[in-house]
Design brief:
Length: about 425
């Protein structure tokens, strides 16, 4: 074992890079605020059952990707691979049914044992939303609008396309399942090993296969849309009308199915071709069966999640960090005055950089290096007069400022 290496598929986000991540997260939080979605934070691990029961025993996530372990008490726990199951669990365990409808926003790390590549990690981060207790198709339109607003606020509208489909209700999916099995049965000899397995356990998932040969077969498969019953069709039309009204463009993608078992009716993905194979940046859909399946009262739900890393890679970057003010003591004697002043200014809300060692020249070059907007120079003579030199690092102009009015003077450099 090599203890100084990070675990494969995990990454350190260094201070110089974290601004882009925080920008995605904070933009998502701001959009969530506008839509009335309150932030919820659930644990990063849950009983394995929480995911196994809800994601479906045949889903890729459950069969191949979960980080599960037995804790010291012998309980099987799993690092969350996604956010919805935990939010649904929290909804049930906190007895929140009285408060419906509920709108939740979350952010945080997720864990999946996947083959690491660009845009695909074993620990990654998501922002997401869940809307519980609204069976109306406008609920789906609402969360899709919210996703579109987030991408727009990040400057990504031109880089993404919204793909939309309907999986229909249980009856429609059962009808389709039969038609799909009948079709795929005729191609058994050419399907990949994975897809043959899926065909027996969860045939809809064959549509999701990334195998080239499977894709050719899937391209000619019957489409779900043709199996939708009247009720499902009406639902789908209402979602589309909602998006049309809001002016959100989309393409209908009849082969779009979501990887997880609990979805019904609406399924959607915002995709880009700017990230290679990892093109889905924000994805979600309706999951009316989920909460009942977990043992709660039947409660409709709809939501989405977006990968923060993928969004950060796509967006031009965060607004620049505000620049600090540097404190430079000219010599040994003013050092403690400089330290006291630093403390005072930080408490007053200024971002202060201070060096403790080196001569005046080295300290000035550090002030330059950290991009200081202004430098406060504490020399013995000025100090004796109750003042300090303040240099505007942009213009190079330096003036003497009384220590008592320093906060007022410096506020122009904030
Ligand atoms: P993919 O088809 O790329 O595997 P998925 O269907 O497994 O995606 P979801 O479960 O819908 O993804 O997760 C929502 C979003 O989270 C994805 O669109 C993507 O942006 C991000 N995401 C999912 N898995 C990873 C990962 N391993 N590394 C980085 N981001 C990820
Ligand atoms: Mg995946």
């Amino acid at each position: 074992m090599a203890p100084v290496k990070p675990v494969r598929g995990t990454h350190d986000i260094l201070p110089k890079d974290i601004g882009r991540f925080r920008h995605v997260e904070e933009t998502a939080r701001e959009i969530a605020r506008r839509y009335g979605y309150g932030e919820i934070a659930t644990p990063i691990f849950e009983f394995t059952e929480v995911f196994a029961r809800t994601l479906g025993d045949t889903s890729d996530v459950v069969t191949k990707e979960m980080y599960s372990f037995d804790d010291r008490g012998g309980e099987s726990l799993t690092l969350r691979p996604e956010g919805t199951a935990g939010v649904a669990r929290a909804f049930i365990s906190n007895g929140l049914i009285q408060n419906l409808p509920l709108r939740f926003f979350y952010r945080g790390p997720m864990f999946r044992y996947e083959r690491p590549q660009k845009g695909r990690q074993r620990q990654f981060h998501q922002v997401g939303v869940e809307l519980l207790g609204i069976a109306d198709p406008l609920g789906d339109a609402e969360i899709i609008c919210q996703g579109a607003d987030l991408l727009d606020a990040l400057g990504l509208s031109d880089k993404v396309t919204l793909h939309l489909n309907s999986l229909g209700d249980t009856e429609s999916r059962a009808t389709y399942r039969q038609r799909l099995i009948a079709y795929l049965d005729g191609h058994r000899d050419r399907l990949s090993e994975d897809s043959l397995q899926r065909l027996d356990h969860n045939p809809l998932r064959v549509l999701d296969s990334k195998d080239e040969r499977d894709r050719a077969i899937v391209a000619a498969a019957p489409i779900l849309t043709d199996s939708l019953n009247d009720e499902s069709r009406r639902f789908f039309d209402a979602v589309r009308r909602g998006l049309d009204t809001a002016g959100i463009p989309y393409v209908i993608d009849p082969r779009l199915v979501r990887g997880l078992d609990y979805y019904c009716h609406t399924a959607f993905e915002f995709v880009t071709d700017a990230l290679g194979a990892q093109g889905t940046v924000l994805a979600g859909g309706r999951y009316d069966g989920l909460i009942k399946q977990m043992g709660g009262q039947p409660t409709p739900g709809t939501g989405w999640a977006a990968g923060i890393e993928r969004l950060a890679m796509l967006s031009e970057g965060a607004p620049p960090e505000p620049r600090p003010i540097a404190i430079v003591a000219a010599g040994e004697a003013p050092q403690s005055a400089a330290f006291a002043l630093t403390h005072r200014l930080r408490r007053a809300g200024f971002a202060i950089d201070i060096a403790y060692t080196g001569n005046m020249g080295r300290r000035m070059s550090r002030a330059n290096k950290v991009g200081a907007r202004a430098t406060v120079i504490i020399g013995e003579d000025e100090l004796a007069r109750g003042a300090a030199g303040v240099r505007d690092m942009e213009s190079g102009v330096q003036e003497e400022v009384s220590l008592t009015s320093l906060e007022t003077f410096l506020s122009r450099f904030r």
